[in-house]
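Dear support,

I submitted the protein below through the web form. The confirmation email said the job was done, but the results page showed an empty box. After a refresh the structure appeared. I'm attaching both so you can tell me whether what I see now is the final result or a partial one.
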Amino acid sequence: MRYDMSADTLVAVPSADGISHNEVESAEPKYIETGANALLHATLQLTYGVE
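What the results page shows now:
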């Protein structure tokens, strides 16, 4: 584990009408997929050096 980096991150995706941190928050699946892929690739890069 690399301790010289923060263990926390946030991946933000666009939400309908700009609403966030609310029970009516909604996002299109394509934006959720894009955010999940960004997190996956960042994790792989930091862990294994995979691009």
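Response: this is the final, complete result; the empty box was a page-load delay. The chain has a mean pLDDT of 88.
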